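Example 4.3 (complexes with small molecules)
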Amino acid sequence: MKTFDGKYDVSRGMSNVTRRRVGCRICGDTGLKTFLDLGSTPPADRLVSESVPAESEPRFPLEVAFCRMCRLVQILETVPPEVLFCEEYPYYSSFSPQLLDHSRANALELIEERGLDDKSLVVELASNDGYLLRNYVEKNIPVLGIDPAEGPVRKAEEGGVRTLKAFFTLELASRLSSEGYAADVIHANNVLAHVADTNGFVEGIRVLLKDAGVAVIEVPYVRELIDKCEFDTIYHEHLCYFSVTTLNHLFRKHTLYLNKILRLPIHGGSLRLYVNRRENVDGSVRAILEEEDRDGVTAAGYYDDFAGRVHRLKKHLLNLLSDLKGQGKRIAAYGAAAKGGTLLNYTGIGREYLDYVVDRNVHKHGKYMPGIHLPVSPPERLLTDRPDYVLILAWNFADEIIGQLSDYASLGGRFIIPIPEPRVR
Ligand code: JHZ
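Answer. The structure with JHZ bound is encoded below.
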């Protein structure tokens, strides 16, 4: 196979635009051990118009591997970011009230703790529609959002959040720094796993951060992914799945220090990382490092039975839906989430089981889920149509969604939550 930069080879005929890793994304080690193959799936956030024939949709391999050297869990394929985070990128953070509350609380806490004022600068990498930075704008604290997705950037600007439409890279960080930008706080929520040049991104954070500044970074935690069988959070946007052991190694490589960690329930279980240019490691970091070592999260064996568990979950869910269909029940789904793209395409759950998907995000209405082409409608459809069951694809927000659907439930509607194991509520 043709090699590229000694680290990639050109993908195996699926598409001439992707690159398949042969070396680890962080340390370059070539001894990667593949432990899960989810087949070939379309980009999970790429909603389509019905006129697109399924055969013409791009699909890319989705294989997950473990690096024995730096312990990074990663997918092998790199789909170019322009394909994934395109002009029509449909993910707008502001449609999830729980995420808004979570983000606001974090901003208010940092304003208080660090005494931020009109002379400070808060930068957010992947600032989306301004869901987080608007909390600083409200308090007259200068902000700079950086995000490549056209629609969300427009929305942020309309809301008064100054935003640069760009991918954050080391080059951009150096340019901003030479123009006099230096951040007191850098937020980077759910983006570190999305970038192909992990080292460049982290180095960029160091370059843009003030000496006494803090980078507050949120990532889904690989331990939660494995322990709770959250296989559907694996898709092409997510290149890396981090343990604290790997993150600690990654930041130190760039003379940054992971000084404090919080574990948070958001997105199925995440880590909030407090990273500084100065070393001041607290007990929270040492405790998780010891725990990962003790429980084997840092060893290849931890991942060995994952594929079997994912396969069993798939069978269980298919059996449950088949039984319900056998009884003549009608089923819809809630959440045109990226993770829904993986779940439906991997399990093959399409129109023979589900009638449609509902979602509050108006940018998704009238579009179709990638691959399986289920139409996306507003949630109100559940009340007029009254399907017997709703499969919650955005299971990470299940309580919130079920709470919103009390009218549907009072009419006899039931819910199916697929993860960590399929159950009816
Ligand atoms: P949600 C996103 O993935 C996007 P997704 C991204 N790929 C990422 O990295 C992860 O998060 C971490 C809707 N909804 O947030 C909104 C309602 O309709 O779980 C969303 O379309 N009503 C960048 O897409 C979807 O559900 C509601 O009440 O898998 C949820 O998607 C709520 C709460 C949500 O993540």
